[in-house]
Write a structure and sequence with these properties.
The protein is α/β, with parallel strands linked by helices. Among the domains are: 102 residues, no CATH class; 204 residues, Rossmann fold, CATH 3.40.50.300. The chain has 18 helices and 18 strands. Strands 5-6-7-3-8-9 form a six-stranded mixed β-sheet, sandwiched between helices. A six-stranded mixed β-sheet has the order 14-15-16-12-17-18. Strand 1 and strand 2 form a beta hairpin. Helix 3 packs antiparallel against helix 4 and helix 5 crosses helix 7. The chain is flat and about 105 Å long.
Length: 557
């Protein structure tokens, strides 16, 4: 087995998320960890990856494994490293390459010194290393790295800057590229397709499906779970259940299992009632009657303690999300005129102009790295444009949902952040009620916000928008990290929202059901009527280049 988890217990902020779970992931298996938002999926992955200690039980990992968290930050020692060098450094072959270069230098030294014996030794050592390097694909390392980077939407420009200069989304794609390049016995991935366009998602699905590495993945991407995995671990209410097959097969089997369990539990309850009624008849009898009553009560105890007959997990209350009726804005909610923005290199935005009317759903579409997030941040006032301007209409209040959750700082509690976003008239009870509508109930309100799961952070950010009563919502990938039920609840809320929505999303079904009227296509800045094909088109990058180490050559000058 690649991963052994035995009698594992997981807690966070005093909440028990997993109790006495035992499961294994075998060599090459592709396993999805599923469950509703807040069930503890991210915390479980972090525990397995060694980020937080378990409350009990044991975890045995393979020697070589990779871990992709939801939130990726560059450590100080790599901030000034070129992204391309950082990518290559993830491969164990990079170390072999260094040893090969050292062995070659030793050969040259021995040759210059005329030391035949040392030359023979260093030549033999170099030969062993060279064979290892060649058989492991070392001579294809750079082309493989560039293929993976390209598949994830990291172009030459992104690879030839320092890691610290990359946006959060590109940095996460770089870390994913590093894991795919490094390989290993096990890949532990938390939402690997977040923020990826359709082409990059397809690349990841194909790569994971064909990789020899075992995979343990948390994802709300139904297509990935149906295309790339062969087992499902279902986590809910602190219990783990194991299913074989794709996500669709898991859903069918779980429904059948729950139906069978409910039937068995109903029959058991009938039997308990019958036995109890019989035992009651012996309550006033003699010693023989007492023995019979005791025997019947023991049978009742065995039935009620049978874990296979426990009632199905309590269904979580479905989310009922509603945005309050917003204050009426002017006819033109916002107007962007000749906007330009760069970050030290080529401009990310250049000469972008459009306007959005009251009540409109307006889509910003384009491939990864096209400037969609930068555009929303300029509108929200997070970034100052290099040129052009953003004019906010009369009586307009902006609410910004940031896909990287940078508005959830460390050291702040959930309720504290709600109070900061809400109007002064909002009471604590009002804010707790809004949180409850998003499934954030009980002690979660007092929890430090950064300890929430990705899905819970998404819900908190959306709850803050509700509390803020904005009449223009800027939403940057709002469905990332949401389970299907929560996604549907948010979709329904936006469909009934009377304000204006400016949306960035790669979720075709979600966007289509919101029915935007217009879309601006980035990076060209073309304003077009919305068409579903916009989210499926692959950008035209010109004729394909031959499979050479273009980035490596550029880096070497």
């Amino acid at each position: 087995m690649t991963l052994h988890v035995t009698h594992l217990e997981v807690e966070v902020a005093g909440r028990a998320l997993l109790d006495d779970a035992t499961f294994h992931v075998g060599a090459g298996q592709k396993v999805a960890l599923v469950g509703p938002n807040g069930a503890g999926k991210t915390t479980l992955l972090r525990t397995i990856a060694g980020q937080i200690p378990p409350a009990g039980g044991t975890i045995r990992l393979p020697t070589r494994y990779g871990w992709l968290p939801q939130d990726v930050t560059a450590t100080p020692e790599v901030e000034r490293v070129l992204a391309y060098d950082h990518l290559l450094a993830a491969s164990p072959l990079t170390g072999v390459s260094r040893r090969l270069a050292l062995a070659q230098a030793q050969m040259q030294e021995a040759s210059l010194a005329g030391d035949g014996e040392a030359l023979d030794r260093s030549l033999a050592h170099w030969g062993e290393l060279e064979e290892q390097f060649r058989l492991s694909g070392g001579y294809e390392l750079e082309s493989t790295a560039e293929r993976i980077a390209e598949g994830l939407g990291l172009d030459e420009e992104a690879l030839l800057v320092e890691v610290g200069s990359l946006s959060g989304g590109k940095r996460r794609r770089l870390e994913l590229a590093r894991l795919l390049l490094a390989g290993g016995d096990l890949l532990i991935l938390d939402e690997p397709t977040n923020h990826l366009d359709a082409e990059a998602k397809s690349f990841v699905m194909d790569f994971l499906r064909t990789s020899p590495s075992a995979v343990l993945v948390v994802s709300h991407d139904i297509e990935l779970m149906n295309e790339s995995i062969d087992r499902v671990l279902a986590l809910e209410n602190g219990q783990m259940e194991i299913y074989r097959g794709t996500y669709a097969e898991f859903q069918k089997k779980r429904e059948q299992r729950e139906t069978a369990r409910e039937r068995a539990t109903a029959n058991a309850q009938k039997e308990v009632l019958r036995l109890q009624q019989t035992a009651d008849k012996f309550r006033q009898g003699n010693a023989t009657s007492a023995r019979r009553r005791k025997a019947l009560e023991q049978r009742i105890g065995r039935i009620t303690e049978d874990q296979s007959l426990r009632l199905p997990a309590v269904r979580r209350r479905p989310l009922k999300v509603r945005f309050p009726e917003p204050v009426r804005a002017g006819d033109v909610v916002l107007a962007v005129q000749r906007l330009a923005k760069g970050f030290g290199g080529d401009p990310v935005l250049e000469d972008v102009s459009f306007s959005v009317g009251r009540g409109e759903v307006f889509l910003v579409v384009g491939p990864n790295g096209a400037g969609k997030t930068t555009l929303l941040r300029c509108i929200a006032g997070v970034h100052r444009p290099d040129a052009g301007q953003v004019a906010i209409g009369a009586n307009v209040t902006i609410g910004f949902y940031a896909q990287e959750h940078e508005d959830i700082p460390p050291g702040k509690g959930v309720l504290e952040l709600m109070q900061a976003a809400a109007s002064p008239q909002s009471t604590t009870a009002d804010l707790r009620s809004i949180l409850a509508h998003f499934g954030l109930t009980g002690d979660v309100a007092e929890q430090e916000a950064v300890t929430l799961s990705g899905g819970e952070k998404t819900k908190l950010s959306l709850a803050r928008l509700v509390a803020g009563r904005a009449n223009c919502l800027l939403l940057d990938e709002p469905t990332n990290n949401l389970d299907p039920a929560s996604r549907e609840a948010v979709l329904g809320a936006l469909q009934h929202y009377q304000g204006t929505v400016v949306l960035v999303s790669h979720d075709l079904e979600f966007v289509s059901q919101l029915a935007p009227e217009h879309a601006i296509v980035m990076p060209s800045g073309k304003l077009l009527p919305f068409d579903e094909r916009m989210l499926q088109l692959v950008p035209d990058t010109g004729p394909s280049a031959p499979a050479t180490n273009a980035v490596g050559a550029a880096r070497r000058g």
